[in-house]
Amino acid sequence: MPVEMPVEMPESSPGGGGTTGAAGLVGLEARPGVPKPDPILVADGVTRRFGGLTAVDVAHVEIQRGTITALIGPNGAGKSTFFNLLTGFDRPDHGTWSFNGTSLAGVPPYKVARRGMVRTFQLTKALSRLTVLQNMLLGATGQRGESFLQAIFPPLWKRQEAQNTVRAEELLRRFKLDAKRDDFAGTMSGGQRKLLEMARALMVQPEMVMLDEPMAGVNPALTQSLLSHVKALREDGMTVLFVEHDMDMVRDISDWVIVMAQGAIIAEGPPDLIMSNDAVIDAYLGGHHDAPLTLEEEQQQSAAAEAELTRLAEER
After folding, report:
1. The pLDDT value given to residue 8
2. Pairing verdict, β 68-72 and 239-243
3. pTM for this structure?
4. What's the pLDDT at 302?
5. pLDDT score recorded for residue 290
6. Start and end residues for every CATH 3.40.50.300 domain found in the chain
7. Cα 197 from Cα 200, distance rounded (Å)
């Protein structure tokens, strides 16, 4: 069940001043759907069903501008499905959501990205037979050379492509991938592909970046590098919403945490408070996971174990 808790956060939290950034989270109630003073993304009544299974059932959620927000929950909680709905890769059965006050319902993914909200995936989408630089250039928007007619006349798009190339090379240096510039993306490690995908997302010059399990499958040697890059996004004025199972990472970099279980949001709040929330612990480990067994329960479990041992012995 959702849990309400008052919370105070230090005014020195990163992310901005006034009601913008993490400073706007100071004094908010730690409860599901709590209104934020400067939300960049707002979702209402978003549901998605697959047959008889309700994968997402989010009544109301707001993402504060200029912050790093973690979306956590056990496997099958609906986190990635919720990402897919917000970014146009799937359609909900019901619900509305807006980005910067503009509805995104029915907007295809490429238009969502053009409006300033981009995402990465659990499984990286690098094009393995293109070079790292070519992968980066694919992320640039509004390229004149994509028009069939204009492509015939190089003077119409050559200058723009040169500018895009300069920006791509700057981002590759920032993510320490410049040495891989001319290598095929298929030759990169899993961690390097995660960095490439994040760098390519920035070619759009987004306002909000959504990272789906950015640390999954990443060599520990690259973990700290990825963490520093995520923090840098906030410092550059962007909003970050990320899905992650590593609670140490969540505690380290997030300003606010939203918890999903069985498709619904069951808790919100700052990391330290969320980590000690009984509803969150139950969602991950199961209800009454630390409650002592009664004598009757012990006898039932003992009888069940003995019956299973007897069955296995008879099968032999």
Report:
1. 41
2. parallel
3. 0.78
4. 63
5. 46
6. 21-126+202-315
7. 5
Find the range with the poorest average confidence among 8-22, 101-115, 206-220, 283-297: 8-22
Residue for token pair 């723009």: 160
- Give the angle subtended at the CA of 29 by the CAs of 26 and 34, to the nearest 5°: 100
Give the residue from 94, 98, 123, 126 showing the smallest Cα distance to 112: 98
13 vs 271: CA distance, rounded Å: 12
24 token code pair:
């706007």
Mean pLDDT of 106-128: 89
Q: How many CB atoms lie within 10 A of CB 159?
A: 11
Rounded Cα distance, 291 and 279, in Å: 14
pLDDT tens digits for range 217-251: 777 777 778 888 889 999 999 999 999 887 888 88
Contacts (Cβ under 8 Å, ≥6 apart) of 82: 46, 56, 58, 71, 260
Instruction: State the pairing for strand pair 39-50/94-99.
Output: antiparallel
Question: Per the structure block, which two tokens stand in for 136?
Answer: 């980066």
- Tell me the CATH architecture of domain 21-126+202-315: 3-Layer(aba) Sandwich (3.40)
Residue tagged 């759907």 (tokens): 33
Can you read off the two tokens belonging to residue 60?
């109301």
